[in-house]
Here is the input.
Amino acid sequence: MKYEKEIARRRTFAIISHPDAGKTTLTEKLLLFGGAIQVAGAVKSNKIKKHATSDFMEIERQRGISVATSVMSFEYKNILVNLLDTPGHKDFAEDTYRTLTAVDSVILVIDSVNGVEEQTRRLMEVCRMRDTPVIVFINKMDRDGKYPFDLVDEIEKELNIQLHPLSWPINMGKEFKGVYNLYDKSLLLFTPNQKSDEDNSLQIPDIYDKLLDEKVGERDVKQLREDVELLEGVYGALDKEDYRAGKVAPVFFGSAVNNFGVKELLDTFIQIAPEPLGRDTDKRYVDPQEDKFTGFIFKIHANLDPRHRDRIAFLRVCSGKFQRNTFYKHTRIDKDLRFSNPYSFMAREKEIIEDAYPGDVVGLFDTGQFKIGDTLTQGEMMQFTGIPTFSPEIFKELVNKDPMKTKQLEKGISQLTDEGVAQLFTQHGGNRKIIGCVGELQFEVIQYRLLQEYGASCAFMPLSFYKACWITGDKKKLEDFVRFKQQNIMTDKDGNLVYLAQSEWFLNTERQNNPDIEFHFTSEFKTQKNN
Ligand code: G4P
Here is the structure.
């Protein structure tokens, strides 16, 4: 347990939300608290604006900028907080899902007016696969949103998670007065545009204290007392272990843009959020306290500038100590590699680092040797698991427009899919190639990059498939199924069999008709639960 102290002072997490709920604003306020940025507005360039949705170059340019803010590290009350950024645009949702494999907990932002939205649901599904601990921040309390009890109800039902309010609002919208913090028994009064270093909280250990009447007013104090009594009766004290096991999600109310409730969120976060956690491999569980270094690649970012073809691979350190200029085993290709310029991300500055500890994220220059999920160790041959690929939602056939450049096209598509830009499926027993993505934009990105970086010209022919399912089961039954459904059977890049379903109806019918075959919605079958 050489690095116990370093591990104990780290918290690695991500903020997730449906676009526009306030993720960027909250990120910025947390960075202000952590002293990582000095002025509001510094994080804005990271956000992909709505009007840019048709312009993928602009989006990629902004993603380029976002490399610098992919990991934002700051110190707060002696805790080193690593905040991993996730793209706001839904077409890049896969990036977000993968980033979630590298964090130990998340803060989920929900807009009090809109409640649970489409992206909120999908992100939570991914969190649930790994039982990631979640703290919910209900934002925009300065607007007339849904009634708090209704919101709690809606979130519990829609996201299928038990909530535990740790703060409770006093009114909302124009009448919003603040929140009562049930965790440390204090009252936080709302003032619009509160400064980050202002502390407006008053300790009120007993909700029947006269001070509360004075501060909140007769009408609202009555309601607050009723609410708090009800909440304390229903929820009691927070069980930290239930939160850490992903069973219960603490809830805070606030207004990020007004800097309200953010400090309470951060203070509680550093107290309850888990330290860097261990991870499973195909051989054994790796404990972060182990002396020997291990880590995995969860994201690869290419440089779109044709003069700089380098890519950056993001490594999450899982155990031991990562050191610069030291040879590590790249287990998939059984090769020893060493990195002379690994860097960390301190707010917007890239810094070459000498070492890193569990929970840290290191940027490694990649000349094409990495793909998502690759593992580095001090020699032990194993591979981290739990970094699955999800079923794409849009499928198109890849058409080669320049037969003279077939080799370049194959190489290009292979490398781009290693990066996780899209998934490649090849017709089983044939050569037809189908690309699957989460968003339309990725097809534009692929077409552009194939031409710019590989000189290969391609087109995409739309296909009407609904989902890709990895299939396993009894050998004979599988062979029969593959023969009957030839048109719909593909193999992924690792040679696994994949069934492309035309619609939900087809999929359900095939599942019913073939009880001996298992249909999986992610590429990693063993860790799957909700299937
Ligand atoms: P996102 O990253 O989740 O997509 O959301 P972002 O933080 O960009 O916030 C979306 C919009 O919501 C922004 O307004 C932001 O100012 C606003 N917002 C964030 N927190 C609050 C809050 O507590 N109360 C209210 N009323 N609004 C909030 P915008 O007009 O889209 O952008 P901007 O022009 O303000 O940058």
Q: What stands out?
A: The chain has three domains: 4-272, 279-377, 394-530. The chain is about 30% helix and 30% strand. Residues 467 and 501 are 5 Å apart (CA to CA).
